[in-house]
Amino acid sequence: MTGPGQRPLCRRHSLPSGDPIGNDCKQFFRKLKRSWDTRQKGPEEKTGKRHRYHWPRESGRVDTYCLRRWRTGERRSSSSAPDAARRASPASTTWHHQTPTGADGPPENRALGQSVPCGATIPGDAIKRRDTTSCPAPAVPALTGQHTASIPNPTDGSTAYWTRTGSNDSRHGPALHEATTSPMTFPPCRAGHEQESFRSGEYGRHCGPEDIRPCRSKCHRRRAKWQCFRLGFLNMHGARREQKWGELYNALRDEEFSLYAVAETHLRDLEEPPIQPDWHWTGQNRSGQSRKGGGVGVLWRHDLHWQRLDGECRDHLWVTGNVLGVNTAVCVVYLSVQGLHEGNVKLIGCVREDARRLQADNELIAIGDFNGHLSEPDGHLDANGKLLLQLAEDLHFVIMNLEPRWEGQFTWCARGSATNIDYALISLRLQAMLQRCGVDEEGKYSLGSDHNRLRLDFGHSCHKGKLISRRRKIKRYLPHHSIEAVVEDFEACAEMHEATTYDEYMLALRRVVERHMVPDRRSTRALKSSWWDSDVEQAWKRRREANREHRRMVRSSDTEACAATWQRYLELKHEVQALVQAKIAEYNKKLFQSLREEGKNAAQKFWQYVQTLDRRQQNSPQLRDADTNQPVAHVRQHLTQYISGLFGSMGNDGDRDASAAAALHPALGERQEEAEPRWAQAYDGELVSVVCRACGGADETIAHIVTECPQLSPSSSNTDLAAALGFVDTGDVVDYAAVRRSKIRLEQWRKITLQGLREGS
Questions:
Q1: Environment class of residue 307 by beta-carbon count within 10 Å: exposed (0-12), middle (13-18) or buried (19+)?
Q2: What is the pLDDT of residues 314-369, one digit of tens each?
Q3: Residues in CB range of 691: below 8 A, 6 or more apart
Q4: Cα(first)–Cα(last) distance of the chain, in Å?
Q5: Around Cβ 279, how many Cβ atoms within 10 Å?
Q6: Virtual CA dihedral for 558, 564, 570, 572, nearest 10 degrees?
Q7: CA distances from 175 to 20, 88, 184, 339, 643 (A)
Q8: Of 313, 375, 560, 622, which sits 20 to 30 A from 703 (CA to CA)?
Q9: What superkingdom does the record give (predicted)?
């Protein structure tokens, strides 16, 4: 048998594994290595590539054994003959006798040839010195198929512990004759072989690999999964172009943001950006009477649940939700530059009041463009910086830009200078969850803005639950060519003829429509403008690289190189602007030429093109209270009060209140006057070298034809309208029915423009 500190025995032999007995030893111990508990490793038990594993003990002490290699040259089952001879040679392996002291020894002194019982315990306190009396090496027993082997015991009656020394390769650890002072218990046997039965000699059964019971922990540790919530902020410095929002969505997808706040969108009133299906948007825009710029908003993933809190202030926005199980309120702030200090003081006071109201149930985050300078990063403290410090002190915020783990420094780089004006403030509990924070000083995700993107990564580990795959619900729509089939099926539907109420009638119609709806497989990506080509794309990329190069030079001390890169950026910027204007003019010229060549279908093609300019569905006007100018929450109650004010509670009594009659409609009228069609905004500055055929005094653009031309109005005759639109130049017979339809559409489009309908002109 082996002594403490030696390698365990194989399942069939009492000799240490590594002697030329075969591959059973290696396979057996490899099985033990995989099955026994290896999860309770101490920090000092891992050295290099050698891992030590705990073996079970009856006592409280634990011994360790290196299971990386069992013996030099035993890595493969097919070893060469010289190696096998060297391993079997007595000259290379010497057995030494050790005598224990201070221990009771094994249960009994075994006579020569007695077997080692399965599950037996070897006591500790073995002497770590080798005895001067050397015993002969034990003979290698024959394979009998049983868990027994013969080992000679010393003749003096003491308990024998055998250690083995030999020519060990330095790659496989220390010498194998090291001993420990802890008792070792081998794994018990599933076949029911108790120690008492082995003591009495009843050990005839075979203990195979299936009888080995691996020692495991009482409970299995659940695998942990890392969860991350990524929050970002960017001052977009104007976001009225659809292309810029497309770049933003690409950046959100690349960096896997959960929530993203933006400032300075330059959106006005009820305008909204293009929203992709994977994201939700809420924004706070400035009104038409306020100063230019401004506008804040928040984007979050569609699978997250965040809610906007209504407020009257135009330059900050609160949203509430959940950050890794913690209720959190996020505030997006935009402070104006110096010169408007009173408005900034009022804004910070409003943020402070909202935060104190939300602190009871939520952790807080305030992030945005404070346009302030602090003494530590910038070297001076201004008025907005004082407001920022006061806000952090009152609400116990941590300014993450001042923390040592903040990556980067400058949040604004332009015109050869760099500074820090965008800040992130979080509460103490969220600071403990923060894993990474910093600013994108390279400007890779700045989208052409002079501000750099801020990023906060919150994370913690959690137990991995059951994986449930959820398939995204496919949207369905009714194709245009299926409308006639829907009408025919609805006329023949029995449920429609049996319907007695309006709800039953609409239910029958809805079921017929659903049968003809098809899955929407169309791409949700925003289409590029028709004038966009490879030349514009290459020029835009050159301008972007010049901007990034200038940002890198700002952080260097070379002022001349910084000024040169800034001048290069301005040149490329002007080049892109001129190229875009030329491409738009060229495209519009080709478009009108193609419309005139359509002949009879020219009017239809013209209005189809006008409709494509506004792909997004127009928002229905909100019903607002005439006194408070706030959206009406209870529409039915408001309409009831309005009708009662007009006609009285018992009907029309002829006594109408003129002020009450105008209470409902002024808000809607103002909304229609403020709402400018998107196509009119997009084509306001187009340069087209085509003179209008109707008036001859202006360039022919869509906005001019629909809203500005004095010769085109609903009162114009069909012949004049056809001549003005150029439908008669082709020589074909004019289809006055198509011209009439164009005339009706012209009247409808004029009603929703700022100029309105010029009746009687």
A1: exposed
A2: 788 999 999 988 999 999 999 887 556 788 888 899 999 999 999 888 999 999 99
A3: 697, 698, 699, 700
A4: 116
A5: 17
A6: -120
A7: 19, 18, 19, 81, 101
A8: 622
A9: Eukaryota
Q: How far apart are CA 717 and CA 292, in angstroms?
A: 43
Q: For residues 486, 491, 494 and 495, what is the CA-based torsion angle, rounded to 10 degrees?
A: 60
Task: Please tell me the distance from the alpha carbon of residue 160 to that of residue 97, in angstroms, as a whole number.
Answer: 6
pLDDT score at 322: 92
What single letter denotes the amino acid at residue 464?
K
- Assess contact for 278 and 301: CB atoms under 8 A: yes
Strand duo 417-419 + 121-122: pairing: unpaired
The 3-state secondary structure of 45-112 reads: HEECCEEEEECCCCCCCCCEEECCCCCCCCCCCCCCHHHHHHHHCCCCEEEEEECCCCCCCCCCCCCC
Distances (CA, A) of 110 to 77, 103, 465: 34, 16, 54
Compute CA distances 577 → 539, 565, 715, whole Å.
10, 19, 40
**Structure tokens that stand for 721 in this block:** 């309208």
Q: In which residue are the tokens 């309120």 written?
A: 329
Q: pLDDT by residue (tens digit) across 330-345?
A: 999 998 875 567 888 8
| Residues 698 and 708 sit within 8 Å (Cβ to Cβ) | yes
Q: What is the pLDDT of residue 592?
A: 82
Q: Is residue 389 within a helix (H) or strand (E), and if so which, with residue range? A: helix 383-395
Fold classification of 224-463 is Deoxyribonuclease I; Chain A (3.60.10)
CB within 8 A of 437, min separation 6: which ones?
A: 400, 403, 405, 406, 407, 424, 455, 456, 457
Describe the crossing of helices 559-596 and 602-612 by its angle, rounded to 10 degrees.
150
Residue at 254: amino acid letter: D
CA pair distance 161, 109, nearest whole angstrom: 12
Query: Which of 706, 625, 694 lies closest to 665, judged by CA?
Result: 625
Domains of the chain: which residue ranges?
A: 1-221, 224-463, 477-519, 530-591, 592-751
Cα-flanking dihedrals φ and ψ of residue 459, to 5°?
-160, 155
At 23, the amino acid letter reads N
CA atoms within 13 A on the CB side of 273: 35
And the tokens for 38? Answer: 């290896």
User: What residue ranges of the chain have pLDDT lower than 70?
Assistant: 1-226, 288-293, 338-340, 461-473, 522-528, 613-622, 647-694, 696-708, 710-761
Count the Cβ atoms, other than its own, within 10 Å of residue 160. 22
Residue 356 in tokens: 């104190």
Query: What confidence score (pLDDT) does residue 747 get?
Result: 64
The predicted structure's pLDDT at residue 728: 53
CB neighbours of 607 closer than 8 A, spacing ≥ 6? 741, 742, 745
Dihedral sign from CA coordinates of 487, 491, 493, 498: positive
Tokens found for residue 157: 């009656």
What pLDDT sits at residue 366? 94
CB 690 within 8 A of CB 589: yes
Q: Is 536 helix (H, G, I), strand (E, B) or coil?
A: helix
